[in-house]
Amino acid sequence: MADWASHLPSELSGGQKQRIAIARALASDPKVLLADEPTGNLDSKSSAEIMHLFQAIHDEGNTVVMVTHEEDIAKHAKKIVRLRDGLIEP
């Protein structure tokens, strides 16, 4: 992303904006990270990188709460809670 440092936000792709948002959230070293569709605008390689990063954050003792519609991304989670029509599935 260093090559894009002098560009305006409107000149960045959705994936680039997503990665910047994740970096900004991690800058304060949170104990709990809330991630709403963190890989929504990313290609599969970038999505895998984000999941590895989230795993490292979790391994350091932090909690990552993630919302996703992507089944392959959800499989990275230690625990999955599924919602259907606003209710937790049994």
Q: Please, could you describe this protein's structure?
A:
The chain is of the alpha+beta class. Helix content is 37%, strand content 16%. The protein contains three helices and four strands, in the order αβαβαββ. The protein has helices at residues 14-26, 44-59, 71-74; strands at 32-36, 63-67, 83-84, 87-88. It has a two-stranded parallel sheet. Strands 3-4 form a two-stranded antiparallel sheet. It is globular. The termini are far apart.
Any chance you could write out the topology, listing elements then pairs?
Blueprint: H1 14-26, E1 32-36, H2 44-59, E2 63-67, H3 71-74, E3 83-84, E4 87-88
What tags apply to this protein structure?
90 residues, alpha+beta, two-stranded parallel sheet, 4 strands
Summarize the structure.
With 90 residues, this protein is an alpha+beta fold. The protein has helices spanning 14-26, 44-59, 71-74; strands at 32-36, 63-67, 83-84, 87-88.
- Major β-sheet annotation: 2 strands, parallel
Counting helices, strands and paired strands, the structural category is: alpha+beta
Q: Any idea what the shape is? A: globular
Percent in helix: 25-40%
DSSP summary: helix tally: 3
Give the termini distance in whole angstroms: 42 Å
What is the chain-wise order of helices and strands?
HEHEHEE
Strand order of the largest sheet: 1-2
> Strand fraction band?
15-25%
Oligomeric state of the chains in view:
single chain
* Mean pLDDT rating: 88
